[in-house]
Design brief:
By secondary structure, the chain is an alpha/beta fold. It has helices at residues 13-24, 83-92, and strands at 6-10, 27-31, 37-41, 54-58, 75-79, 96-103, 109-114, 120-124. The longest helix has 12 residues, at 13-24.
């Protein structure tokens, strides 16, 4: 089994994609020509197992089985060694601060923002095990 990534269901695909591109340097690796579906990541998107990705999709793509609702029942985790810089970049791109950069008791540096849709985005450094 392969986990294909996270899909954010939103009303404005273009604005949401622009936020994640500006805030975290993700690039468009696939876009539906009708503007209702974008896959962001690094590199090239291919069907099947691939690099982690963030998909942004308009609600009308799933209107046959779901109604629009709030995007606040989960959080997105983005891993980087540059937590403080990513946090500031997210704020500059329009995010709201939820937790300023801090170091957790186990040594991991983390920060949390809310994207323009209210989605919780945790930015964390890799955890050193050993």
């Amino acid at each position: 089994m392969h986990f294909g990534g996270v899909t954010l269901m939103v009303d404005n695909v273009d604005a949401t994609a622009a936020f994640y591109e500006k805030a975290f340097g993700l690039g468009t690796v696939f876009a539906d020509p009708d503007g209702t579906f974008v896959v962001l990541g690094r590199g090239v998107w291919t069907p099947g197992p691939s690099a982690p990705s963030l998909t942004i999709e308009h609600w009308k793509k799933i209107e046959d089985f779901a109604e629009p609702g709030p995007a606040n029942a989960f959080r997105v985790f983005l891993e980087t060694t540059e937590v403080d810089e990513a946090y500031l970049s997210a704020l500059a791109a329009g995010a709201d601060s939820a937790l300023m950069p801090t170091t957790r008791p186990w040594g991991q540096r983390v920060a949390v923002v809310r994207d323009p849709n209210g989605v919780i985005v945790e930015i964390g450094a890799p955890v050193e095990y050993g």
